[in-house]
Amino acid sequence: MVRGMSSHATTPSRTTRPDVSDLPRELHAALTAPGYRPPLLPAVALEVTQLSGRQDVDLGMVVQLLERDPVLAARVLAVSQSFHYARRSPVLTLRQAAVRLGLETLGHLALQAALELQVFRAKGFEAFATRLGHHATAVAHVTRDVCKRARIPGDQAFTCGLLHDVGLSACLQVIASRPAWAALPFEALAPVLDAVHTEASGLLVRAWKLPDAIAKVVESHHQVVLEGVAQPINAALVVAEQLCWEQGAGLLPPPRHADAGSEEGDLPEQPLEGLDTNWPSLVQEAMRLVGFDGEALAAARAAAGDLLAELGLGERLG
């Protein structure tokens, strides 16, 4: 799978079907153009995300901040009422959510809600955009769990998992805005999206002025070693993508032979022609870097299945 984009651009004809081989250059030009306006994240969501990384922030301040955006606040509250977060008793107010979940998780929910409302949308590609949002949420939760199990410092693991494929949505929104491109079948667009999505994700995260450490992970999330240095969060994300794919929460469903309940430590192989998939050798290297042998892998796999079931994700996406 080829990753990356070049900088030369051409303009597709209105009367002829565009050459799909030109699309990586076209998308790069569109996403880096001075006048490009990335899909907006609500200012409140960005502020909550930034505040959630601080130790000296009062929860009441964050609740008041969320209440400035009623639509976002309602979505955060709806997500916090899921079984995974609510547990034994329902969460009825933002203040209850803040007290029960804590500032870090509340920040995660605000970012997740903002992406669902504003970013994981593309006219004409609604079904895929919805699946992309579910996949991002699944990978975020499982990446954080993998980091905990592997004892990897993962303060930004959830955010990296949530944003790792956000470039796909940005590309689809650009494609949807150009009738000649939007008319192409998704099967023709998928290889292009696969080729450009890592760099596109990095560009979008940087446009939102999120921390550079997050941008570096999302733009290299199909690599676990950079310039000879192992990248633990990248490795955890690769492992999480494998586990999510096995559970039916990948961008494409797993084949019938993928046994998510296996306890043998084996790894069903993702299809190399798929979208946002990882080479078997890369997954094996990621497993080694996070220290997952057969037993640890089986435990992480079972936990991922339980976690995605609680979130209402997983097999229903397959």
In brief:
With 318 residues, this protein is mainly alpha-helical. Helices cover 59% and strands 1% of the residues.
Folded structure, characterized:
Helix content is 59%, strand content 1%. With 318 residues, the protein is an all-alpha fold. The protein folds into two domains: 39-119, no CATH class; 123-317, Hypothetical protein af1432 (Orthogonal Bundle), CATH 1.10.3210. A two-stranded antiparallel sheet has the order 1-2. α1 (23-32) packs parallel to α12. Mean pLDDT is 85; it is low at 1-15 and 260-264.
- What Rg is obtained from the alpha carbons, in whole angstroms? 19 Å
- Weakly predicted, low-confidence segments: 1-15, 260-264
Number of strands: 2
CATH topology title of the largest domain: Hypothetical protein af1432
Instruction: Count the DSSP helices.
Output: 16
Largest sheet strand order: 1-2
Which descriptor suits the 3D outline? globular
What is the domain tally?
Answer: 2
Question: What portion of residues belong to β-strands?
Answer: under 5%
Tell me the series of helices and strands, N- to C-terminal: HHHHHHHHHHHHHEEHHH
Average pLDDT metric: 85
Structural class: mainly alpha
Binned, the helix content reads: 55-70%
Architecture of the largest domain in CATH?
Orthogonal Bundle
CATH class of the largest domain: Mainly Alpha
Q: Which keywords apply here?
A:
globular; two-stranded antiparallel ribbon; Hypothetical protein af1432; disordered N terminus; 318 residues; 2 strands; mainly alpha; 2 domains; 16 helices
List the helices and strands and how they pair.
Blueprint lengths: L22 H10 L10 H9 L7 H9 L2 H11 L2 H4 L7 H8 L1 H17 L6 H25 L6 H7 L2 H11 L2 H4 L3 H22 L4 H7 L6 E2 L2 E2 L1 H15 L33 H11 L3 H18 L7
Antiparallel strand pairs: 1-2
